[in-house]
TrEMBL record:
GO cellular component: membrane
Domain of life: Bacteria
Protein's name in the database: Pimeloyl-ACP methyl ester carboxylesterase
UniProt xrefs under PROSITE patterns: PROKAR_LIPOPROTEIN
Domain spans labelled AB hydrolase-1: 89-334
InterPro entries per the UniProt record, alphabetical: AB_hydrolase_1, AB_hydrolase_fold, AB_hydrolase_sf, Epox_hydrolase-like
Signal peptide segment: 1-24
Keyword Nuclease: no
GO MF annotations, alphabetized: monoacylglycerol lipase activity
Keyword Coiled coil: no
Gene3D superfamilies assigned: alpha/beta hydrolase
One GO BP annotation of this record: acylglycerol catabolic process
Keywords: Signal
Length: 353
C-alpha cells in the first residue's frame, strides 16, 4: 500500500451536491457554518415528481430497461463521449444522497483526458425508477453491468463516492474481468454498520423521513462539509421541490428501502478480494456515521473515523494507493474538484490501463 502525503487545502473550490435519509449520517455541528437561509426560501418553488422529470441534468439522458425485484424498470444514464482519441471508459457511481448530476464537476476533466463517461442513476435514485421492492447491491451492480453490455463496453474504470463506493466494491468483486481500475472516494462500507447500529423497522424509518423539513435537511447536508458553500443550496432546493410534490411518500419509501440495503449488506469484507489497482481518496474531515441517530453513544465515538478507515482499507486492499485530503469532508469531487480531478486522471493514465 502506498500513501501520498496529506494535501493541506487553504482554499475550498466550489461545485455542487443532492439528497439523503434524515439523520442517517451526521458530523460535528461545530464544523458547520452558522449562517443559514430563511426557512421558507423555496416556498414558491415548482414541485418535482418521483423521477425528477423537470430537473435539468448537465448532459442529455437516455434510458435503459433494467430488472429489479422481478419488475422491468427504467434506468436513466448519461453517456458522454471522450474528447479526441478515446483512452478508455469510466463509470461513475453516485452516493445515496445524490444522483448522477452531482458528477458535473468531474465529467469534463475525464472527457478532456480522453475517457468516455457513463454516469447512471441507480434504480431507486435520481431520474431512474423507484420500485417498492427490496434493494440489494448485487442487483445494482448487475444492472450496471447489463447497461454496459448493451453499450458494447467490456472494460471500464470505476469512480465511486459514499454509498456508491459500496456499489463499486460489489461491482468490482462480481466483475473483476471488467473493472480495470477502481477509485473509492470517501466510500461508505469501510466498517460493518450491522455490528453497532440496531435494526430499524421500515415504519419507523418512514415516519422520520416524512418528518424531514427544509431546515433539518439543510442541517444534515451541511454535516458533510467542513465549509458550507452557497452553491450547495441548489441541492436543498431539489429536495424541497421533491417534498412539495405528490410523489414524495413514494420517494420517502424508496429512501427507507435503500437505507436498509446499506444497513444490512456490508462490503468491508470484500476489500481483500479487490485485485485491480485501487485509489482511495479520503477527505480527512469526514466523520460520516451511517445511522448515527440510532447508534449507542459508545459506538458513535468509534464510528466514522475516515482517516483511520482509509488507512485500514488501504492495508486490506492488495494493490491500493491512499490520498488523504486535509480540510475536506465527505465529497471531495465537489469540495475540491481541481485537486480531485488531477489525482483521478493521473491514476487512470498510469499503467497498467
Amino acid at each position: 500500500m502506498k500513501q501520498i502525503p496529506a494535501l493541506t487545502l487553504k482554499v475550498i473550490i466550489l461545485a455542487g451536491a443532492t439528497s439523503f435519509f434524515m439523520g442517517a449520517c451526521t458530523t460535528a455541528v461545530d464544523q458547520v457554518s452558522k449562517s443559514t437561509p430563511p426557512v421558507s426560501q423555496y416556498a414558491n418553488a415548482t414541485p418535482l415528481d418521483l423521477r425528477l422529470s423537470a430537473l435539468p441534468y448537465p448532459y442529455p439522458t437516455k434510458e435503459f430497461k433494467a430488472m429489479l425485484g422481478g419488475q422491468s424498470v427504467g434506468m436513466v444514464y448519461m453517456d458522454i463521449a471522450a474528447v479526441g482519441k478515446q483512452k478508455g471508459v469510466v463509470v461513475l457511481f453516485h452516493g445515496k444522497n445524490f444522483s448522477s448530476d452531482y458528477w458535473a464537476p468531474t465529467i469534463p476533466a475525464l472527457t478532456a483526458a480522453g475517457y468516455r463517461v457513463i454516469a447512471p442513476d441507480q434504480i431507486g435514485f435520481g431520474k431512474s425508477a423507484k420500485p417498492d421492492v427490496a434493494y440489494h447491491f448485487d442487483d445494482l451492480a448487475k444492472n450496471t453491468h447489463a447497461l454496459l453490455i448493451s453499450l458494447g463496453i467490456k472494460k471500464t474504470a470505476v469512480i465511486a463516492n459514499s454509498m456508491g463506493g459500496m456499489v463499486g466494491v460489489r461491482f468490482a468483486r462480481l466483475y473483476p474481468q471488467v473493472v480495470q481500475k477502481l477509485v473509492l472516494e470517501n466510500p461508505l462500507g469501510l466498517e460493518d454498520y450491522s455490528k453497532d447500529i440496531p435494526p430499524q423497522t421500515n415504519d419507523n424509518l418512514l415516519k422520520l423521513e416524512m418528518a424531514q423539513t427544509e431546515v433539518s435537511y439543510r442541517r444534515f447536508l451541511q454535516s458533510y462539509f467542513p465549509v458550507w458553500q452557497p452553491s450547495f443550496e441548489q441541492f436543498v432546493e431539489v429536495y424541497v421541490r421533491v417534498q412539495k410534490g405528490s410523489d414524495y411518500p413514494a420517494y420517502a419509501k424508496t429512501s427507507v428501502l435503500t437505507y436498509q440495503m446499506i444497513a444490512e449488506q456490508p462490503v468491508v469484507n470484500d476489500l481483500p478480494q479487490l485485485k485491480m489497482p485501487v485509489l482511495l481518496i479520503i477527505g480527512q474531515k469526514d466523520r460520516t456515521v451511517f445511522g448515527r441517530r440510532f447508534a449507542p453513544p459508545e459506538a458513535v465515538k468509534s464510528l466514522g473515523n475516515f482517516p483511520e478507515l482509509g488507512r485500514k482499507a488501504a492495508q486490506a486492499i492488495p494493490n491500493a494507493k491512499l490520498i488523504p485530503l486535509d480540510n475536506v469532508g465527505h465529497i471531495p469531487h465537489i469540495e475540491v474538484p481541481l485537486i480531485f480531478n488531477q489525482a483521478v486522471v493521473s491514476f487512470l493514465n498510469s499503467y497498467p490501463r
